[in-house]
Amino acid sequence: MREVAVCKLEAFDLDSNLDLEVGAYGFDAAERPPLVALARERAAHKYAQTFGPETTVLIGDTPAVLRAVLNVTR
Question: pTM of the full predicted structure?
């Protein structure tokens, strides 16, 4: 959930350089790989530019995030 992610990032002062509004979170989809595309769509809409692998950062704390990375990079 977005609120949980915000709390975790704020606790270590890691949120200041991230736009958490364009992120995609577990409540957006049950599976993680579609979240990458959703976050890229949100960022593209907000910033009017395309975001690909070289401009996308995945942050997570579960094995599901690693599976999403592996799925996206194939």
Answer: 0.78
